[in-house]
Amino acid sequence: MARDPPRPHRPGRAEAPLRRQVVTVAADGANSLVQSVDWAAIAPPTITAVVALVVLVADLFVADRRKPLLGVVAIAGLVVSMAALLPLRDGDRSTFCLTDNPGVCSYTADQFTLVIQFLVLGGALLTALLSLRDTRDKLPAGEFWFLLLSSAAGAALLPASRDLATLVVALEVASLPAFALVGLKRGDRFSSEAALKFFLSSVAATAVTLLGVSFVYAATGTLHLTQVAAGLEDVPGQLDTLAKAGVALTLVGFAFKTAAVPFHFWVPDTYVGAPLPIAGYLSVVGKAVGFTGLILVTVIAFPGYADIWGPAMAVLAALTMTAGNVAALRQSASRTWSAVRLLAWSSVAQAGYLLVPIAAAAYSSDHQIGATVAYALMYAVVNLGAFAVAAVVARTRPLNRISDYRGLYARRPLVALAMGFFLLCLAGLPPGIVGLFAKVTVFSAAVDAGLGWLAVVMGVNVVIALYYYLQWTAILFRAPEPATADEEAETAAEDTRKGIPAPVTVAVALTAAVGVVLSGYPQLVLRFAAESLF
After folding, report:
1. 285 and 401 together in one domain
2. 325 in a domain, yes or no?
3. Based on the domain organization, do 517 and 419 belong to the same domain?
4. pLDDT attached to residue 491
5. C-beta separation of 135 from 141 below 8 A
6. Could you give the CA distance from residue 179 to residue 198 in angstroms, rounded to a whole number?
7. Per-residue pLDDT for 29 more than 50?
8. What pTM does this model have?
9. Core-most of 277, 383, 392, 528, by most CB within 10 Å?
């Protein structure tokens, strides 16, 4: 049977010029398989992974009283990984490229990669600060730090992945340790249940993703994203249905990871059952992983099928923000419900906002993706700050109910002011200017793409969210109820006696300071909304 000639490679916009790429040439002029590796480009995830292994091995030899040193090593490793991003600021560095086509690479450190890696490693660093005290008292130190760093390494690798195989591997390296982190509270039934739900939903998402990737490979004969895009433009008629099914299944798999409706059912119970810092980690880094994967496959690999995934993303965005806000509104009506559960539903609603620019990219231009990146940076700072304050409250109020925040200003004025600021940023109200501008940027992306109906749905949801964000903010500054005055006095005395651990104080202060700076100079993150990231 005659075979069709191989399709010529069509370089896409996402292909960056190579640097430090060396391919050895044999005597007969044929390219060999030996090539140099740009170690500087792959340094951030590599350093994180190496430190994870160092911590795991060191845990075997370090005495119990010196276990806190493992946390210090982990934090230092994350700081060094973030510092490794500085030499890459010019971007456009690639490695692990095809020897017969150096323009097609598996790892690219462009501007998009560096921004997401900064978000991931920064989120992991704040999670580590919040976890230092827990690893001394409640959690096994060695296992915890190894799992956290391993997950962060996978999450940092994912935005640089430019082929479907590397993308799936990075996704699993980020996800598998997270299962264990959620269930690391030994003997806690809720923690085990949360880990099981998270595991089952994530395994199902991975299976669907792998099935979709296999269909795409069968239809195009390649796994590199830019070559997939070129191959999907010229799919033989008998493979067209297979290609469409592959695109749809791949997107469904990533929708699980982003907690988009109807794949969000695991979020509330997982956040409540997980250790509090890990809940914050999942709400920021876990979402960054899912949205990064969605952006890479839609904008780079599947642009030719924008007429399929564009409407799907728009509908998912509308459903996700609506379901999240309605559930959070119901949650806020009962003061005895968990504040962490309310933050969980809020994160589902925020995921809907993050989906809007991805949907808009199908109708206008890829520049809309910058709005998702800008919004993700704002959300990461203030949401981790909210979880840091929740960690402060949980020291004396382990149930962490919404009613436990009543009178927080009387007990800890600075912490209450920080929490109020974080909630106003999430609501998009002054003085949280960065939250307001980020929402306007996302709203504008929908309008510019001609998705007026989606902009209307977003506007209605923003108004709905104002109710529970402002209600929670008001609770912070109310006086304690008379019936609980003695309890408040006892709690205040216990607060004074225990104090706030220094790492938690640093986490609250750092997130609040960054939030204030971004509110004063929102262009630091909003500039990404006006730039091409690929």
Report:
1. no
2. yes
3. yes
4. 57
5. yes
6. 7
7. no
8. 0.87
9. 277
